[in-house]
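discrete fold record:
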Amino acid sequence: MGERTLRGARLGGQSFEDERGIEFAARQQVGYVCAQGHEFEIPMSAEAEIPPVWECPRCGAEALATDVTQPEAKVDKPVRTHWDMLLERRSIKELEDILSERLDLLRGGEIGPAHLHRTRSKSKAKKSA
């Protein structure tokens, strides 16, 4: 195996190119402070849009940028429940009518769990015999 490796090359891949003639992209340091008081800087491109919030590398809390205008608070819409959506489609009177119809069918044995129908039909068969 030692015969196949290049002499002078190390594991991990060392680049033999030098940095002469290379122009690096313009960078800027953006400072952030989290709620716990941790301060840190992130290098970013000079052309990049700076995010107003960044995750703190120490505690994981949200950190706010020091030089950027703070983000606007988002307005949360109230949660729509199933009942709210149902009331958009039906009135209370319609719902009461549907409920009474379904209860009559359930009490009459026309709808409902199958095990309730079997016991009823057996008890009727015994009475008629």
Notes: The first strand starts at residue 27 and ends at 34. The helical segments are 82-89, 92-107, 114-128. The chain has a mean pLDDT of 82. The chain has three helices and four strands.
